[in-house]
């Protein structure tokens, strides 16, 4: 079986009827790139930047972050690298952030909510990202979005960061593709409006399932109730896909469900343009995509 999959290396991610799909890999550390290339992924669809914060005993500096993003971009040699801004909070706690203990951390102060209130942390990361984008094909993605106002606030901060870099004479890339994660039911329901504001969507099915089914993704007792194929979640993905395409934007899936080959055909029928999966699943998903005929 492994050998069979190896034969799929260097093969295109294309359906029998000729629809091109982008199969990318998820990574959680800059050292994971070797595995991505070994499995012949055509890009990185989710680079979880939290490792930089979790590995450190203090806020990672702009230079530290710049080096990490630049290395990944260079090693991917022109292939797309979608870096997600920090998603600390909830389950991922870091001492130096001095976050309060919360009753419902999954519904709490996390991700973009931290970035939009502690802007110096966010700006440091954005500066590193815009600088690193000079060295490869970097896109930026924002987690846990629930409103158009958040996206507009992000744009104001990006404009400030770029202006500051310009004033300081530091090289950066002017136009970086930016997208949002669709991982809250709110973002799905207003995805028509959000699609006007961003370049792409990437569905985080882990959190989208958690928030849609009101099931804590960490609570093992709830496993019997956690139906990853729940119709409500699939309908939401379809809705976000339709709204993305109505604005000419692309949509991918970077949550675990993207690697579920029993759903690949359904996803492609919805028009999902990209699937980002763990590196070890890339060839498996490629195999499945190449068997599908969307005209049937
Ligand atoms: C998700 O929620 O599906 C996702 C990809 O993000 P994370 O698992 O890092 O929360
Ligand atoms: Mg998530």
Automatic annotation (TrEMBL):
Cofactor entry: Mg(2+)
Catalytic activity: L-histidyl-[protein] + phosphoenolpyruvate = N(pros)-phospho-L-histidyl-[protein] + pyruvate
GO cellular component: cytoplasm
Domain named PEP-utilising enzyme C-terminal: residues: 3-293
Residues annotated to bind Mg(2+): 183, 207
UniProt record similarity statement: Belongs to the PEP-utilizing enzyme family.
The name this protein goes by in its record: Phosphoenolpyruvate-protein phosphotransferase
Parent-protein start and end of this portion: 248 to 543 of 543
